[in-house]
Design a protein that fits this description.
The strands form 3 sheets. Strands 1, 4, 5, 6 and 9 form a 5-stranded mixed β-sheet that branches. A 3-stranded antiparallel β-sheet has the order 3-2-10, with no helix packed on it. 33% of the residues lie in helices and 31% in strands. The chain has one domain: Alpha-Beta Complex (Nucleoside Triphosphate Pyrophosphohydrolase). Strand 7 and strand 8 form a beta hairpin.
Length: 192
């Protein structure tokens, strides 16, 4: 199934996801190079909400660009398999290798604003990240390390600690609380 079909079949969790799903579908139809950074208005990204095998911790990185603890993820850079992108980004940003999808389904969708910034000495204009998030499971006992060009640190936290660790109020209220609530639902669904 391609991303467009997955998004059409995706059942939004809330109004934010409904509106963002509609916008992502519209931009997939109308924008060229949407899977690459060549599209300077908006491009596809994938994120991961990584939970430990015992479901007691989530993995986060202290991102250089945002100067905050945040989820892991990155640009599709031409790859249309966004689950593969999420797995690649988690491995690159945290150093962990034992990570796997909870399932192949989309966990969450978001349209995220990115303020203009300098990256590798070049200015990047403000733009949108059309983001698809996957729920991943990892062994919290394995070695982790940061990726200095992207983050200062990587760590495991209790899900509720995320609200204290992040310094981005919008992400706390609209993304991380949603991801934790959805995680509880998905894990309960698996247990039933």
């Amino acid at each position: 199934m391609n991303l467009k079909e997955e998004l059409i079949n995706y059942i939004p969790f809330n109004e934010q996801e409904e509106k963002d799903r509609e916008l992502i579908l519209e931009l997939l139809e109308t924008q060229k190079d949407i899977y690459t950074r060549d599209n300077r208005l908006a491009h596809m990204t994938a994120s991961a909400w990584v939970v430990s095998e015992d479901h007691q911790k989530v993995l986060m990185a202290y991102h250089n660009l945002y100067d905050s603890w945040a989820w892991l993820g990155g640009h599709a850079d031409g790859q249309k398999d966004l689950l593969g992108v999420a797995l690649r980004e988690v491995r690159e940003e945290s150093g962990i290798h034992d990570v796997r999808p909870f399932c192949d389904e989309i966990f969450s969708v978001e349209v995220l604003t990115v303020d203009g910034h300098v990256k590798k000495g070049e200015y990047v204009s403000s733009h949108l990240h059309l983001n698809v998030t996957y729920l991943l499971i990892a062994d919290a006992g394995q070695s982790i390390h940061n990726k200095p060009d992207e983050n200062k640190a990587v760590g495991w936290f209790a899900p509720e600690e995320v609200y204290v660790k992040s310094t981005e109020p919008w992400f706390i209220e609209h993304i991380y609380r949603k991801l934790n609530a959805k995680m509880e639902q998905w894990l309960k669904r698996e247990a039933d």
